[in-house]
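Researcher: Here's the sequence for the chain we discussed earlier.
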Amino acid sequence: MSASGGTKAIVAALAANLAIAVSKFVAFAFSGSSSMLAEGVHSLADSGNQALLLVGGKKAQREATPQHPFGYGRERYIYAFLVSIVLFSVGGMFAIYEGYEKLKHPHEIEHWYWPVGVLVFAIIAESFSFRTAIKESNPLRGDHSWTEFVRRAKAPELPVVLLEDLGALVGLILALLGVSLAIVTGDGVWDGIGTICIGVLLVLIALVLAAETKSLLLGEAAGPEETRKIEAAIVDGAAVTRLIHMRTLHLGPEELLVAAKIAVRHDDTATEIADAIDAAESRIREAVPIARVIYLEPDIYSETDAAKGADRDATPGGPAHPPADH
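Model: Thanks. This is the structure I predict for it:
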């Protein structure tokens, strides 16, 4: 659902941004409005961003290879991170620079009806794109707030498109406000102020996207709901008596790795233990279908060992061993 919904939202945003970018550049050519130029570059950058997301989605579908045994699911995270860089540099920093230049050398906006008309058209078109992103995100969002959805979503496309569309709408309103004030007062400084505000907004959105996609790139565990389902599926009370410890890791938005140490009975035969592991894997996949890579290690549970706590030296991210004395 997330992949198809994300693609639909990306295509809708791409079509809207291409049409809007052309209209903004035309308006800039006739009016000389720096807000129009900044918004045109913003829409062009957004179009490139959506193309990057589509490329990332396509590359992520490649089959696993001996060199990449867990597949290419994280390609989607890499391209989403590139989007944040493009949005920051091409969108935000360019707008701030253009606004600064307009403040230094303000000039009156000519043919005011061009930028105003284009901005109204762009707001309408961007609203339809934003509506599509919201509609496709709602089934995945569930009962979570929009902030929680952006922070917890494992598929990066919908949060990226949502934030881009939100930034575009707010930016268009800022551009319309700046252009309107410049027209009413006859002072082009307002156009420059509006342009700088657009740039600051884009930089802030880019930083949020960068932080979220960086977390996905580093590797995130399954969400609380999926974790509870996996834990419940592992233990059957008969062959598997207890879950000793477990680690999960998203290999991609729709692929989860599960590694766990499970307690079996001390008098079980090797065949019985193998059957118990196979049955536990089947229960996990049934409860959480995206759990495609599963490694279960059988062990005999010891209350004494459990009381000692986890072995940090054997845990990824545990303390480094001190260098040996020479």
